[in-house]
Amino acid sequence: MEIHFWEDEIYNPEGCIHGWVETKWALLARQPLIHTTQMGCLSTNLLEIGYRVFLGESKEIKLGKNDCTGRDIRTGHNLFKLWDACEFDQ
Asked: 90 pLDDT band (50/70/90 cuts)?
């Protein structure tokens, strides 16, 4: 299962979910592939329930060492706050 977060409502793939409720429903339904602009859903909980988490098309966020940031990601991290602080812009 994969979820892709798109920071811009203009530059994202067709079928991308733009609503908060719709994104939450897709997650509850365990849809195998989700594209969304709802950055507030960015969480380590997604990793724990089996989703691969991406920013855009290919920047993957995973537990442990990541190429897209200089820190190790742990389950206690708030991914939304890290994204908001531009931690994944490397």
From this structure: low
